[in-house]
Amino acid sequence: MSSSRSLACSPCRCAQVALADAEIAYQPEAEKHAGVLAYELVQGNLVQWNSFMDKSIPDPPTAVLLHGILGSGKNWGSFAKRLAQEFPMWQIGQLRLSPRVLVGHSFGGKVALSMVDQAAKPLARPVRVWVLDATPGKVRSGLDGEDHPVELIDFLRRMPVQVNSKQEVVDALVKAKFSVDVARWVATNLRRSSPSGSRSSPSYSWIFNLNGISEMYKSYEDTNLWRIVENVPRGVHINFLKAERSLHRWALEDLQRIHTAEEVAADEAGGVEMHVLEDAGHWVHADNPDGLFRILSSTFRIETSLRGRE
């Protein structure tokens, strides 16, 4: 996501892709539409595509993975491919389809909840939503001495638009008391802006718009989606996953509200559930990918089983 404007776009009618001869063919209109968000399509090797060409073939079950505020699609690339290997009838991508599973990390977790809120009710089929290390309401940063996203974004905005190396950014962040792990992760979002092989010194710039990122994070802080959790739409199951060493503070109030919502879930087709991922900080897919995979796999097995009965 390169700007905050993208979040306000209406659902795009152009983001249709087809799989032909094992290669992805994009519709030409998609290139022209400025509102299309970037995505990467990952498909299991048993996926039969596509109903746009053959209505007799049902749409493959789709999962959408949404990264966090300073992330990119490549953050979840390896994890998505692992899911597609384990569940070869699934695809994972941002398409004009009704997803069976939504997985959102941090900022992406609130986006996933917002997608449920904006969807037509009742939903055409059950949807399982995973909110990874984010709460529906107030954002509570970590304790003193821990990394604060607002401070990190503000610091990056004060840095030069172009830098000479990724290490320069890492060194600057560490000097400013940000953790080494966060500094190295942030530096992965730099791309070389000077042509490779040129005689001039190399330079790097950000792959995203930091002013847009700042606006989106403010929206993330201000958005309150507790009403969805406490009045879950029919057919929706919301799973919260708390990282054991989260950089966000999960207040006792938040945990109590989620557990109360678990108890008052309307029926078996919808509900709320709380999970804890041990031995992981906020970047759950990097800190404990095996543990996260075990927890998420249950959802894909359930949905695959339900699909087999349709």
List keywords for this structure.
310 residues, alpha/beta, Rossmann fold, 2 domains, seven-stranded mixed β-sheet, disordered N terminus, AB_hydrolase_1, Serine_prot/Carboxylest_S33
Q: What strand line-up does the widest sheet have?
A: 3-5-4-6-7-11-12
For the termini, the CA-CA separation is 35 Å
Please write the CATH class name of the largest domain: Alpha Beta
Radius of gyration (Å): 20 Å
Alpha plus pi helix count? 11
Q: What average pLDDT do the residues reach?
A: 77
Oligomer: single chain
Give the overall form.
globular
Number of distinct beta strands? 12
CATH-level-2 architecture of the largest domain = 3-Layer(aba) Sandwich
Task: Estimate what percentage of residues fall within beta strands.
Answer: 15-25%
